[in-house]
Amino acid sequence: MSHHPKSDRELDGISRRNFVRIGSVALAGGAGLGGRAFPAAAGKRPGLFPAPSQEARIQSYRTLGRTGWRVSDVGMGSVPLRESTVVRYAYDKGVNYFDTAEGYGNGSAERAIGEAMPHMDRAKIFIATKSRMRDGDSAEAIVDRVRKSLDRLKTDYVDSYSIHLCSTVAALSHPGYHAAMDQLKAEGRVRFTGVSYHGPGGGRDDSMADVLIAAAEDGRFDTVLLVYNFLNYEEGDRILAACKANDVGTTAMKTSPGVLRYEPLDPDNLTERQAAYLERLARRGQSRESALERLEAQTLRQKDLYERTRPFVERYGLTTEEQLRLGAVHWVLQNPDMHTACVAFTNFDLIDKVIPLSGNQLGAAETKLLEECRLALADQYCRHGCRACGASCPHDVPVSTIMRYAYYYEGQGYEKYAMSLYAGLKGKGASVCSDCLGDCAGACPHGIDIQPNMLQVHDLLTLA
After folding, report:
1. Cβ distance 258 to 338 under 8 Å?
2. Residue 8 carries which DSSP code?
3. Which of 79, 266, 420, 450 stands 20 to 30 A from 356 (CA)?
4. CA 373/CA 389 separation, integer angstroms
5. Beta strand pairing status for 97-99 and 190-196?
6. Domains of the chain as residue ranges with CATH
7. How would DSSP label each residue in 173-222?
8. Across-strand partners of 62?
9. Helix or strand or coil: residue 413?
10. Is 372 exposed, middle or buried (0-12, 13-18, 19+ CB in 10 A)?
11. Which of 153, 130, 132, 155 is nearest to 225 (CA)?
12. pLDDT 10s digits, 354-397
């Protein structure tokens, strides 16, 4: 079965200008990167950063494993999607893979896609949604949740329904999920099944590679969603190999790990963000002196990363963090075994910047830039999905998960979201690290100094 998006003439096209009128809407493997080399992608070779283009369209479609679907190499993620016009704009550019979840914005992401549904040809798009499976969830309860997702999406069926954040190999055999999927497939409400996972939340969870390789070999799952970027590809490459051997579709998340931002701190001339941070702390009863100390610690953390990246930032003329993000997405697109890379499109500008990457080869300058960035940040970036340090912690602190929340906060700007996730750990946070003997010292194979990082991140993600 082969599915292609409509031609430009067939699409219910709508210009960017018209999108703005309808509703306002508020970064793959070249040689030299860890010794890996992928075949060159089709298309002309761009410069360091392809120019944003409102005319650019998706140039490459890949077969999503045994589903048979030809999906755009750039897919659309939906955190924190709120505006349906962004969905329509991406669709108009040839994006035909949309990843969402029941829990994204408490259903608001699904609703945004649903609002765009009347303006898209349902038969030409692939919608993948998902939800977490708790131990006691019955088939009836899961069927009910799927039906609610269908209502929000305004569709009679979803192309894929996945076990979201599946943290153990054993959980792949969730009886309620499989019974529900059997029923919904028979009804034509779900076509394929899948698994998503970005790594352990505690010492009892399995690694990302263990879970997703098992899923690929299981036979009951058609797609997987995994972490994959130029700083974090070792486990991902193993997963991709297993998926290729078993004809399972592959989709990427968290494709851009780099951080270039540095905001100097002047207590007498605070930026808008710094002032808001201090105000939040003040509302929680902290003195200005104490709040400034916390803000200074956060600033020093950002400055260290900035100083590490400054040499190649200046050499390659980077001016924004977004440029590095584009290069990181472009790296993922070079691997033909990764069928689509999900980018969280939240506005028209980002779509206009990412779409020109589709079908184009990673340039030599980009390859060198990402290699230098990889070397500079190797001992600063906690790999999503890694659990190498887990056994060394006497308190079972979920280091990788907490560092992922810091990534949301600092790398993606989702400050309140990251803080709420951290608060949800309910006593399993990094506060215990302050009185610990530091058994984790030297446990990270990538050289990350875990304990001081945990203390800094705890300070970053809490206001108490």
Report:
1. no
2. T
3. 79
4. 24
5. unpaired
6. 16-258+319-360 (3.20.20.100), 272-317+368-461 (no CATH)
7. G-HHHHHHHHHHHHHTSEEEEEEE----SSTTSPPHHHHHHHHHHHSS--
8. 71
9. coil
10. middle
11. 130
12. 999 999 998 888 888 888 888 877 777 788 767 788 788 888 88
Mean per-residue pLDDT of the chain:
83
Q: Give the whole-angstrom CA distance, residue 169 versus residue 207.
A: 9
Torsional sign, CA 221, 357, 153, 415: positive
Instruction: Find how far residue 55's CA is from the centre of its chain.
Output: 26
Strand 61-63 to 97-99 pairing: unpaired
Answer for the pair 155, 123: CB distance below 8 angstroms, yes or no: no
Give CA torsion, residues 210, 247, 226, 340, to 10 deg.
170
Q: pLDDT by residue (tens digit) across 66-94? A: 999 999 999 999 987 889 999 999 999 99
Take residue 299 and report the two structure tokens written for it: 């600033």
Q: What is the 3-state secondary structure (H, E, C) of 131-166?
A: ECCCCCCCHHHHHHHHHHHHHHHCCCCEEEEEECCC
Q: 128 forms bridges with which residues in the sheet?
A: 99, 160
For residue 105, give both structure tokens. 């914005």
Q: DSSP character for 252?
A: E
Strands 340-344 and 249-253, sheet pairing: parallel
Closest to 356 in 3D by CA, of 325, 326, 331:
326
Q: What is the pTM of this model?
A: 0.80
Find tokens 């003040």 and name the residue. 282
222-237: average pLDDT: 94
How far apart CA 391 and CA 445 sit, in angstroms, is: 13
Based on the number of CB atoms within 10 Å of its own CB, is 317 exposed (0-12), middle (13-18) or buried (19 or more)?
A: exposed
Can you tell me the distance from the alpha carbon of 17 to that of 20, in angstroms, rounded to the nearest whole number? 5
Q: Which two tokens stand for residue 33?
A: 């990167």
Active site residues: 104
**How much is the average pLDDT of 414-425?**
84
